[in-house]
Specification:
CATH topology: Alpha-Beta Plaits
Order of helices and strands: EHHEHHEHHEH
Number of domains: 1
Mean pLDDT: 94
Number of strands: 4
Distance between the termini: 32 Å
Number of helices: 7
Low-confidence stretches: none
CATH architecture: 2-Layer Sandwich
Strand order of the largest sheet: 2-3-1-4
Strand content: 15-25%
CATH class: Alpha Beta
Length: 148
């Protein structure tokens, strides 16, 4: 099973759509393997987005991501990275395909509701950043539902 990291950003909380965002991934059949409510410091946000340092959007992104809490989630499933990126949509909502999270709810390229890992290497690095040594991650066992 492939894993990916999805961060539900502060703007999703402000719009009160966190449940709707989570539902998109659940309806796709992904398994939530871990979740954490995180208030990043500017230093943590800067380290997380270090590959963008020097770009015009880096400082505003760090400020935004450390402004309020985020919900950091790890999802598992078949081809979960590619499939989750399709659910999320392109960074700029003006370019995002209809029905994607960003097309529906994002304001702009920074206030775009979610962050999603873009490759297996990024996913593993990002998961380790928030869940070091796999702490807080779970593998669900298949169980039958209890019928009344």
């Amino acid at each position: 099973m492939q894993r990916t990291l999805i961060i539900i950003k502060p703007d999703a909380f402000m719009k009160k759509i966190v449940g709707k965002v989570i539902r998109q991934f659940e309806e796709e059949g992904f398994e939530m393997l871990g979740t954490k409510f995180v208030k990043m410091t500017p230093e943590q946000a800067g380290k997380f987005y270090i590959e963008h340092k020097g770009k015009s959007f880096y400082e505003p992104l760090v400020k935004f991501m450390s402004s309020n809490p985020c919900l950091v989630t790890v999802w598992g499933g078949s081809n979960v990275i590619k499939r989750s990126r399709a659910i999320i949509g392109k960074t700029d909502p003006a370019d995002a395909q209809g029905g994607t999270i960003r097309e529906r709810w994002a304001r702009d390229g920074r206030h775009n509701i979610v962050h999603g890992a873009d490759s297996p290497e990024s996913a593993e690095r990002e998961i380790e950043f928030f869940f070091p040594y796999g702490e807080g991650l779970y593998k669900w066992e298949q169980r039958e539902y209890i019928k009344k």
